[in-house]
Amino acid sequence: MKAAIIFTGTGPILILTSYESFTDPKFIETLSAKGIKRFIACEIPLERVKEKYASTYETIMNDVKQVDDLRVLDYNGHNVFHNFSFSEMGKEIKYEPQPI
Q: Within a domain: residue 100?
């Protein structure tokens, strides 16, 4: 399981995912289905997410049933942005669809 802050056009969200990579085509498809076509992802240490979101984290984890899954843990951008320092964020991964 991985955790990441996904910076979108409407602000940051915190997600949990079982996908191995933030560039996995199925991960990108899943975000696209949620209306997120372009993003910057920064991995966050899972232990820090567990500390900050204790019971919410447990509730979400109990709902993750599939191998390839994605759950939004927090969509309050202000909260997400201020819960983690830049030093806790991994290298950013940028994605945007190729023009057709």
A: no
